[in-house]
Amino acid sequence: MEFNLITIFPEMFKSPLNESLIKKAQDKGLISVSIYDLRNFASGKHGVTDDYPYGGGGGMIMKPEPIIRTLKEIKNKSRDAKVILLSPQGEMMTQSMLKKLASEKSLIIICGRYEGVDERIRNHYIDQEISIGDYVLTGGELPAMVLIDAVSRLIPGVVGNENSIKNDSFYSYLLDFPQYTRPDEIDGKRIPEVLLSGNHEQIRIWRRKEALKRTLKRRPDLLKSVELTEEDKLILKEIKASHNH
Asked: Which is the catalytic residue, given 11, 65, 91, 115?
């Protein structure tokens, strides 16, 4: 997987891209990250990448020419790369979206800034516009880091134990079940006895029940997307019955 980042603050990516699983994935050749400083593609000695909006108003708008030049440079080596613009107006990032992105060979990620990009970029040069939440940040660099991290861990070989991904919250539209580690008791608070039983089937059922219970309580909207088994339906019926008493 190739990640191509277009940004006016390339230094922001140095530490996040050189730590933990992302660094290991690059060392293994599972992913590559190329950073393009938008100022290098701007006209004039000052490398201006923004200008005042037509019609007046506050803030600045990212100029179209530097972005177009950068896109052409990247497309020369990765013609089929998917172009993503990160902005508050985009489609909300979800796990199912990330799974689709992980199947791409190359992504171009435009990190928006100021009051956004010239609308012609949005209308004619991008394939997908993505938001990481209903809030506003100072720019698209932090969302880009989130996207790279979230997509990378879905690429085979990046996470050591790939089965752990399947238990992640949202992977199957369920929130994760509670997790515990040693010691089994602290300050008089013990972990659930079933986890010490050694009975793998009972543990599996307990974990599924807790995941369903947590999702029902905190994010019931997610249950609409879950492929419920007959066992799940019985568990949910039991959970709801216990809440009604």
From this structure: 115
